[in-house]
Amino acid sequence: MRLVVAALAMMMMLSARGFRVPTSPTKRLSSLSSSPSPNFTPTPDLISYLTSSPTPQYITAPMVAQSDLAFRTLTRNHGATLTYTQMLHARNFVSSKSFRDDNYDFNPKLEGLKYNNPPLIAQIAGDDVKFMTEAAQILADSGVDGIDINLGCPQAIARKGNYGAYLLPQTELTTEIVRSIKKKLPTTPLTAKIRIQDNIYDTLTIAGKLQEAGVEMLTVHGRTLKENKTLTRQANWDAISQVRNCEERNEELGMRLFRLLFCGATNSGLDIDATITAT
């Protein structure tokens, strides 16, 4: 069954009035970060939740310094069916308590999440198998509904840290990370975000290897590493459609499927409609 999703990096032209920010957020986050709420029940099967929900779905993409609790709450109130935390650097998250305290804004006690609310996925980045696995373990224990691996960031800091889109072509390492996390957390949904490659064959090859290693859902950004919204305004929807068509053929052959999310160049409602039409 094909899942058609418009994943948006929303530019919210709205005012989040009336949202109260704690006077001492770091202190409050620290006090809540040790364990999930005993009354909190994560979405039992994230993939089934997405598959059974009406399509298209509207998902807020993970954005550094943007996808915080206030932003996620705002987008949920305007119809988001799935939200992500901002990207968390795995090594820093595991080794630095101050980093965790400053970024741990997704504990269920803060989110106020209940079963059947829009689920939450935590995104991590890094190239160290040990730290990526430990970060995933901490996040899964906190009650998030899934773990996402960032294999799509094109920024210079990602090149310096060897993560994001720079790590993506290193398939031996990326699949080792995926297998390690999946072995540690066999029942936690594992997803990844990638960018298209210079040709469709490489894109499909990488996607297939991630799937074989244990990734259950893939977000495909319709630009290459060298492209961005300044150099290339429009995402390559044709390439994304080819990924989708490949999955449809796999379905006909009875093969295990990815759940696909599509993103890139979606800054308004009109862009979203165009994305759905094109893909």
TrEMBL record:
Name the keywords, alphabetized: Flavoprotein, FMN, NAD, NADP, Oxidoreductase, Signal, tRNA processing
Claim: Thylakoid is one of the keywords in the record: no
User: EC number(s) on record?
Assistant: 1.3.1.88
Name its co-factor(s): FMN
* Classification via SUPFAM superfamilies: FMN-linked oxidoreductases (SSF51395)
Which top-level enzyme class is recorded in the Swiss-Prot or TrEMBL entry?
oxidoreductase
| Signal peptide positions (record) | 1-18
| Boundaries of every DUS-like FMN-binding domain copy | 60-245
Which GO molecular function terms does the record list?
flavin adenine dinucleotide binding; tRNA dihydrouridine synthase activity
Catalysed reaction equations from the record:
5,6-dihydrouridine(16) in tRNA + NADP(+) = uridine(16) in tRNA + NADPH + H(+); 5,6-dihydrouridine(17) in tRNA + NAD(+) = uridine(17) in tRNA + NADH + H(+); 5,6-dihydrouridine(17) in tRNA + NADP(+) = uridine(17) in tRNA + NADPH + H(+); 5,6-dihydrouridine(16) in tRNA + NAD(+) = uridine(16) in tRNA + NADH + H(+)
Check the record and name the InterPro entries matching this protein.
Answer: Aldolase_TIM, DUS-like_FMN-bd, tRNA_hU_synthase_CS
Q: Which family does it belong to?
A: Belongs to the Dus family. Dus1 subfamily.
Q: Report the protein name in the record.
A: tRNA-dihydrouridine(16/17) synthase [NAD(P)(+)]
Q: What is the lineage of its organism?
A: Eukaryota, Sar, Stramenopiles, Ochrophyta, Bolidophyceae
